[in-house]
Amino acid sequence: MKITDIFKKQRRTFSFEFFPPKKYLTAVKFGINVGQLMKLQPSYVTVTYGAGGGTQGNTFDLVDLFQNKLGFTCMAHYTCVNATREKIAYDMRVLQDMGVENVMLIRGDQPKDQPNAFPNNDGFNYGGDLVKFVADQYDFCIGAGAYPEKHKEAPSFESDLDNLKRKVDSGADFLVTQMFFDNRYYWDFMDRVRKKGIDLRVIPGVIPITNYNQIKKFADLSGAHIPEALQKKMEAHPDDPDVIYRIGLEYAVEQSQDLLSNDAPGLHIYTLNKSRAAIDLYESLAEEFKDVKKDFEKSFQPHFPKYPI
Ligand code: FAD
Questions:
Q1: Domain for residue 220, yes or no?
Q2: Low-confidence ranges of the chain (pLDDT < 70)
Q3: Could you tell me the pTM of the whole model?
């Protein structure tokens, strides 16, 4: 099913993002975590794509598994770093033949070991150009990335927003944000987005902090600010993962409640392939997602195999 069709039925969606595990043991843990998360009946799930290569084929395998073997609506992420137009066309046909209806189209970052990835003369240099190429030739529901705190390379909010508008006009059907921790960035961004004439759903991406050092690294890389008060609270407990977990979860619950009570169109949870925080977060918000659950129960057609896959 196209995610835009889910939007017609669900005023707000609750979705999970996964990445393909690299090693055997992490794959086993991944399976256990996914099993627990799927019981929450998400609106849809997404699988990231490694811009640097390596696990790209695993993305397609996992999308196939989620969608065709387990019966969940799934969105495949796809990046154009280092990809030629021919490769992109080929990969889109593979996804199409697999019955995938949703793609998250993003540029990807230049991998550290590929300093000459841009400019990409045989392909594209921006997410918007990839969106246009795919929207012009294929019938996918297209998601694209949005940056409430401005993309780290953009010289100004205005230029970033001009580029976002171009990307939307090229054929994006909805937007998902980079993680952020201070909702004021999201609301200010939404004001600018609406003033710019972009009326698509902009789904906030939320990440519960369960490992402070890891998330701080991601936040630094993506340009997301962790509020000082939260940093101080976390840094006061460097050796106590349980306290960090509790602080991170409480923060994510408050942040999510604020987003939903002010009418954000749902939440996209960056799970980092773990289940506990996402489950705890969901359970604290179960009332807000009652309609998602009802719709899931009506429309889900599970393909759970009788024997292990
Ligand atoms: P773009 O739209 O390409 O913008 C990037 C920069 O270029 C911005 O500063 C923008 O203002 C500028 N720009 C855009 N168009 C133009 C133009 N025409 N002329 C001049 N400047 C322009 N990375 C992965 O590797 N794999 C993933 O699966 C993945 N999933 C993601 C999912 C989401 C929801 C988000 C928000 C990010 C994801 N990323 C992923 C990270 C993403 O690849 C990086 O943030 C990347 O730097 C930007 O990609 P983009 O397509 O969103 O940005």
A1: yes
A2: 293, 299-309
A3: 0.96
